[in-house]
């Protein structure tokens, strides 16, 4: 009977933990909802300004048409096929400065930039392929820009030292999306001669800038006063300098180490969007409060279980015979911490929000438990234990690479402490003492 009574109390505590886990799930769903609002703010800025930019090119293109005889169910017929002969640069050099600022949408700050860049490319001679029945059209130079609304003013293009007037559109290259182009001309021998060009481009964008390394030899240099870059894409910078004054990074990408040319040719041939390897840099928030709040909520179950283990052991040892509702109120105060952390971190720096939320919950617990335990020293001792748990949780949040190790060590330490405190207890005697 005593064992059944003790088991019943443990079962009730388990039900309380399940209720609190449901509350934590609601907090996590709220974090996901706020993250969606943040993403909507980014989309709103991108819709009114320009989105994330991807540059492809420059490329030289000769369009062609070809009549092909195909055999069908109703006999032989002639089909007209359209295509392009595309030439990649031999060498491409990109250099530019990303001038950042932040746009506010409600309570959200969205990083945007104005890129002041130059592209210098060199092309080898290009001879149209001698395919029987193929008729070539007028060649042109094209530069793919994912969101042409970001183009500021008129880009300045020089081809072999002579100014050229760019026109809107990427003509027949649907794979590039938007872009700009300029007509070219074949020489007397019927080929595109070797050429060097320089393009000065002012481009606005949101959050990230990416370039597809289309040349045989690609050199990219980007700099900005934004102190928190994220280098993505398929290639890490060969050199980088990141500090409070901003960053400077450079890439050197050879076609021997990149599949971008092959991927671009396939995208153009198949007429779908370009999903090629890129050099990318993003302007990110150093502390994503929603990612941090979500990680904290994921540790919430561990946090509650550890607190209840300590609270339950103290209850059994001291023979307090606390009511399940008191356990529930203590647990709800723990859950409230995560809700406070989420709401405060939207208005305050994350560290300060964490200190305020944890301090408020610790003070609330100490005040409540001083009455439940009928002793301020006991309540302050429990508050000290909570302070240690909040400190450990913060350590898990800021040490992302070592979170698993720290969490495992914390669990082991708590288990060892509980086993040490209870190894001489007579659980049956505890059950009879509570009758």
TrEMBL record:
Keyword Membrane: yes
Pfam families from the UniProt entry: CreD
GO cellular component term of the entry, any: plasma membrane
Regions crossing the membrane: 7-27, 299-317, 324-344, 350-368, 380-397, 403-422
Record keywords: Membrane, Transmembrane, Transmembrane helix
UniProt entry tagged with the keyword Membrane: yes
Domain of life: Bacteria
Name of this protein: Membrane protein
């Amino acid at each position: 009977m005593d064992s059944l009574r003790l088991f019943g109390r443990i079962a009730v505590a388990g039900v309380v933990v399940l209720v609190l886990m449901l509350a934590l799930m609601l907090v996590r769903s709220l974090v996901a909802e706020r993250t969606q609002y943040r993403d909507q703010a980014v989309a709103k800025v991108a819709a009114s300004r320009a989105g994330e930019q991807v540059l492809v090119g420059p490329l030289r293109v000769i369009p062609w048409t070809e009549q092909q005889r195909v055999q069908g169910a109703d006999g032989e017929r002639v089909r007209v096929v359209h295509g392009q002969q595309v030439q990649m640069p031999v060498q491409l050099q990109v250099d530019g400065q990303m001038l950042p600022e932040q746009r506010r949408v409600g309570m959200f700050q969205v990083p945007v930039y104005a890129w002041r860049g130059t592209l210098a490319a060199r092309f080898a001679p290009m001879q149209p392929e001698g395919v029987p029945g193929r008729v070539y059209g007028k060649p042109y130079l094209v530069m793919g820009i994912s969101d042409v609304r970001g183009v500021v003013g008129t880009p300045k293009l020089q081809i072999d030292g002579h100014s050229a007037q760019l026109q809107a559109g990427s003509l027949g290259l649907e794979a590039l999306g938007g872009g700009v182009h300029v007509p070219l001309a074949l020489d007397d021998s019927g080929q595109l001669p070797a050429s060097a060009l320089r393009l000065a481009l002012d481009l606005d964008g949101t959050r990230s800038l990416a370039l597809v390394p289309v040349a045989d030899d690609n050199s990219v240099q980007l700099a900005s006063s934004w102190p928190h870059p994220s280098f993505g894409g398929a290639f890490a910078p060969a050199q980088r300098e990141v500090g409070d004054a901003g960053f400077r990074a450079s890439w050197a990408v050879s076609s021997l180490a990149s599949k971008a040319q092959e991927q671009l040719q396939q995208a153009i041939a198949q007429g779908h969007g370009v999903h090629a390897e890129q050099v990318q840099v993003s302007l990110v928030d150093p502390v994503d409060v929603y990612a941090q709040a979500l990680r904290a909520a994921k540790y919430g179950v561990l946090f509650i279980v550890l607190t209840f283990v300590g609270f339950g052991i103290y209850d059994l040892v001291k023979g307090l015979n606390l009511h399940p509702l008191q356990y529930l109120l203590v647990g709800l105060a723990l859950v409230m911490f995560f809700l406070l952390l989420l709401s405060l971190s939207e208005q305050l720096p994350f560290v300060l929000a964490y200190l305020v939320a944890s301090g408020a919950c610790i003070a609330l617990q100490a005040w409540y438990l001083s009455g439940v335990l009928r002793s301020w020293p006991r309540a302050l001792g429990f508050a000290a234990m909570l302070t240690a748990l909040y400190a450990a949780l913060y350590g898990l949040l800021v040490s992302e690479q070592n979170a698993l190790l720290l969490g495992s060590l914390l669990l082991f330490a708590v288990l060892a402490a509980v086993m040490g405190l209870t190894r001489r207890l007579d659980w049956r005697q505890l059950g009879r003492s509570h009758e």
